[in-house]
Amino acid sequence: MRTAVCFTLLLLFTSLSAIAGVHASPPTEGSTLLISADDTWNGTHAMNGNIVIENGAVLTINGDVTVATGNAITVQENSTLSVSGSLIGEELDSGIAIMNNTQLHLNFGDLAESGQLRVDFDQTIPNSAMFNMTVGEETIDAVGSDHIFIDVSLNGTDLLAEFYVYYAFEIQIVSIQALHSGSGESPLLLANEINQTNGSLKWNSASFELEVFGTLLLNGATIYGADLTCSHMCEIQSSSIIGSAPIHVNDGSSITVNASEILGSRTDEDIIVHDLAEITYTDNQGTGGYTDGWIRLLSQRQIQTNAANITVHQTGIGYGSSVRDDITDANGVVDIGGSEWQRIVEWVDQNGVYHSENAELILTLSSGWGDFTTTVPAPQTPTAEINVPLPYIEVVSIDAEDTTAEVNKRIGAMVSVRNTGDAAATVNIWCYVGDNLTETTALTTTLAPSEEKELPVSWWANSDGAQVLNCRTLIPNILSSIAGDITNVEGGNSQEVGWYIGEETEDQPLIIYGILVVLIVIGTTLFARRAAQKINHGDVPEAFEENEA
Fold first, then answer.
1. Global model pTM greater than 0.70
2. Could you give the CA distance from residue 343 to residue 326 in angstroms, rounded to a whole number?
3. Which of 99, 108, 295, 324 is the residue whose CA sits 20 to 30 A from 340?
């Protein structure tokens, strides 16, 4: 009996807990509410505190919740926030960025026959600016003021305010109020309530944080003044997101936005899709003006290549289609994302038109072997690998014509070289005995990919003994860091050749001297005989006759 009673009490307690959970409400005293079971909020609530949805729970908000400034709603992994009602930030900080052709379309109703508009700006208009506002026949110069008054009719007629502006920096209208001498209130329009064209609704700060590591489902919802980050999955259907942009969609996450409006961004885009996050964006209204619907922003644009000192010529990079040149570092790395604009690779503009970067990279490695180059589309990923086609020059073998040779005499050999790489190269081949450069004929050749050649070479040695001829490609300094990738650095070797000193080699100078002596003796003898013959025939030289006299 006691067991049955306890069991009944347990069921009752569980049921009451469930009912309490269904009718729970947000915190009001600045505390943090942990929601670990499914919960639903209906009706109107004022929230002051933080909410964490955890443990796979689903919080459904069908009613209207006003969220105090600085509050945070966090949806943890595997948990869900589903909103068909509203989340409204308590303090809304918006402004309309004014451009040269901005127009405001105003109608405050039938308040009085005439009155004034008070237009408040976010700053004092600098004296260096040109800033004129015209309504009908009335034009006011706003330079030097943080607000202006302009005379208008307030009898229910439509008012068109036009701006003629020249200034390098952004100026915003934060509110417009209709002032009159009649009875009744003087209505005030905040920036987000003003109907405008060719301007841009800006949200200068968010009222509260909405961070989603699980799932966010918005269907027919209204979100005002949120700092919204999607780190897993966000689905926005037929909803209004006001003053809550840019929505950040982190790498590895996804967002779907359909038949919705996203108005008022703190930056120049309504949605920022980071790196490889996914987005589906159809039939939506964006902030417009110069605010894009969405962009894909890469965290970096780093490219790993296969060599240092590669020149990377870039055209059409990023949002501004920039042109620039970079050089790979000692590790073969180059960063082509020097600015945020150069890291924007996709975007939907303010008119809803999709664009994608059409960029090209030309990578060139210039060396004494020739120029090695490749042309590729610029990768639209944070990191990528691009290799320049390179040769691989291999000295395969050296075949000497004999195994013995005489010092200071030539011996012939055939040097076999081939290119098993992906690019042609013109190379010099040097030959060594041990670590010493030896005397051979010059070897220069051009090899196409997959080509092999036999190159004749003459080899002289000036010392005797067994020697092996080693030939290898001469590597330009600019390629020295990748020598092993472009050639067999050890080269090729001949068979051992025994160099000897010939027998006649040492006697050769003595023989030459002997021959010279013999020639001198013979010449002297012949001269003496000829002189004697002339004397015998009476042919005495004149000098000799003078001496006789």
1. yes
2. 15
3. 99
